[in-house]
Write a structure and sequence with these properties.
Length: about 190
């Protein structure tokens, strides 16, 4: 891991004081993984062994409905965390897929190293608490949006808050995430300003 990558990774853990941490040991915990566009990173039915930090790319987390269609639950992108968190923490089979929508480079930490990091440096517990609290709040806000907003409101809200790199992925993924047909998404994209 080069110095620039290390600084990006450190910035992901703002609650952690890296002064007393063995930098070379911390770097050694992370492995760089690359994926081509549309590679499956984690398959439904498998157990997630890595927590990822996205260096580059966009990924979608989705399930397959009874018709075999992808139902997108969320995205990860440059600078964000990625992975199938419930499977990673519980070490149970994933019900979801994680797919690279663009060529992606991820830094991954294996579960055993993740636990060792938390044991050796308890300040990571504060980060973990805040991280999973934010995940929970994000899921709650998403449920409220899906249950209370019109398709147009969901579209505008999403487009106002999403990073630019999400705006250029195939619109069928965005439409699925927003719980609308691709035709509706296309119509809104052409007619609604945000």
């Amino acid at each position: 891991m080069n110095d620039e990558t290390f600084l990006r990774l450190k910035a992901f853990f703002p609650q952690v004081n890296f002064q007393g941490l063995d930098e070379s040991w911390f770097r050694s915990l992370w492995v760089e993984k690359t994926f081509n566009q549309y590679d499956i990173i984690t398959e439904a039915g498998s157990i997630e062994h890595y927590f990822y930090f996205v260096l580059e790319g966009v990924q979608a987390l989705y399930i397959l409905n009874e018709k075999g269609q992808k139902v997108v639950l969320g995205f990860s992108y440059t600078g964000s965390p990625s992975g199938v968190f419930d499977s990673f923490i519980a070490q149970t089979a994933s019900s979801t897929f994680l797919e690279a929508l663009k060529p992606s480079t991820l830094l991954g930490i294996h579960l055993s190293d993740y636990h060792h990091l938390f044991e050796k440096h308890p300040e990571f517990h504060k980060w973990g608490h805040l991280f999973f609290q934010n995940v929970l709040f994000g899921r709650l806000f998403r449920e409220v949006e899906l249950l209370t907003m019109s398709a147009e409101q969901r579209y505008v809200t999403f487009m106002q808050r999403c990073p630019e790199e999400l705006k250029v992925i195939p619109q069928k993924y965005l439409a699925s995430y927003l719980n609308m047909k691709p035709e509706t998404f296309s119509r809104l994209r052409a007619s609604v300003t945000y």
